[in-house]
Amino acid sequence: MKTLIEPFRIKMVESIRQTTEKERIEILKKADYNPFCIKAEDILIDFLTDSGTGAMSDRQWAAMMTGDESYAGSKSFFRFEKAVQNITGFTHIIPTHQGRAAERILFSVAVKEGDKLPSNTHFDTTRANIEFNKAEAVDMVIPEGKIPTLEHPFKGNMDLDRLSDFLEKYHENVPIGMITITNNSGGGQPVSMENIRETGRLLHKYEIPFFIDACRFAENAYFIKLREPGYQSKNVLEIAQEIFSYADGCTMSAKKDAMVNIGGFLAMNDDTMAMNARNLLILTEGFPSYGGLAGRDLDALAVGLEEVLHEDYLKYRLRTAEYMGERLTEAGIDIIRPTGGHAVYIDAKAFYPNIPASQFPGQVLCAELYRKGGIRGVEIGSVMFGRKNPNTGEEIPAEMELVRLAFPRRVYTQSHFDFAIESIIETYGEREKAKGLKITWEPPFLRHFTAKFGLVD
Questions:
Q1: Cys bridge to 100: 2, 125, 412, 413, which one at CB 3.0-4.6 A?
Q2: How far apart are CA 114 and CA 137, in angstroms?
Q3: Is the dihedral of CA 395, 398, 402, 404 positive or negative?
């Protein structure tokens, strides 16, 4: 069949409030042109994030009813632990309320001031947690990963030559190495099995632990099945198990590929590091068998980790992004190609060639998409990853100016995506009218969440 249907039936619906463009212009002004500051009830299509925004299945809701809310040693924890170990093979499974809590604990016990942590591309919270510990997050994605329109099957790959040179020079200052699958900041692009294996080999040469940011491990595994020779006959679980076999641990926001609204975990093999992590967990998150989560959340997470490996779901998931990407490309809109698994990334620099990075073209596009169609996306560019020159105070722009439209799992139908595509194309037709933005206030960390903007005169 030419038509790929959603591999689920809708059992409950949530109404969406319609707004007018006039209303949305006023809402934008009150939100200081920051999509994070717009009330959810004023959003028509919410592509801000795929983190915790998905729809849980009937099996997940049923599992929640059996949740064991015992403070210590609950049955829910052991079901969760078994599900994670079946996929990752790691010895120590430490639940947290979400991914950034896992990152904070890991870096608190493993990282000291002056350390350097390589990855393909650190995402925003990962980088912030590293920098909070006064260490340096170093990005090493392959050069192809920085060219939006270039076709490459694994644009999330680590630059192995650069990593090798880096480790030869700095290995004594590298407490752990990481890789993000899929590479969120670089367009949701996958990493090949060969690249994961070689990254682990280079790190282990210097006895450096290798950790995976595993938020979208299932999507990455399915890309490997589709694109990497030798994996077509393997199922997604087998591919995922091989991925983790090359690593020493992982962090995960379960709000992504575990398809739950809250939750995460830190997993590893090292006994001493795990003991230190659990001690900090008790201090800040909760007892090691719940880690800040209710037992029912752990049960829903265990079921989600099984459901995300279903290939009919993954085929639909990847095809959704591919479908939107094809339509936008046909309209002349530059995106990161090929499309990733969880989002479409629009090249805002190409969308607004007359708006300089200092006026944040990605943030402008986010505002314009909301004005036109009530669509909320997120800027991944100089607002999120730009820096100020410590001597002059001038903005140092990011390498790419992107807008990510991240798709909640099992939430929107094709008509929602068709509406979003039409809105983006219409916004593109009005691109000459858009004005740049300037920051009027910002916090010291993760400024994109709460910064305030105003129109450039």
A1: 125
A2: 11
A3: negative
Report the alpha-carbon distance of residue 292 to residue 354 in Å, rounded.
Answer: 47
Whether the predicted model's global pTM rises above the 0.85 cut = yes
Beta-carbon contacts of 12 under 8 Å, excluding residues fewer than 6 positions away, are: none
CA–CA separation, 303 and 220 (whole Å): 19
Candidates 411, 410, 384; CA nearest to 398 is 384
Tell me the residue ranges of DSSP E strands in 181-303: 210-213, 249-253, 264-268
Q: Treating both helix axes as pointing N-terminal to C-terminal, what angle do 217-227 and 311-330 enclose, rounded to 10 degrees?
A: 80
Q: What are the φ and ψ backbone dihedral angles of 368, each rounded to 5 degrees?
A: -70, -35
CA distances from 136 to 119, 130, 252, 396 (A): 11, 7, 21, 17
Give the orientation angle of helix 361-373 with respect to helix 414-429, to 10 degrees: 120
Peptide bond into 338 cis (omega under 30): yes
Phi, psi (5° rounding) for residue 404?
-95, 125
Domains of the chain plus CATH, in order, are: 21-50+311-455 (3.90.1150.10), 58-307 (3.40.640.10)
Q: What pLDDT, in 10s, does the model give residues 28-49?
A: 999 999 999 999 999 999 999 9
Distant-in-sequence, close-in-space partners of 211: CB < 8 Å, separation ≥ 6: 106, 176, 177, 178, 247, 248, 249, 250, 251, 268
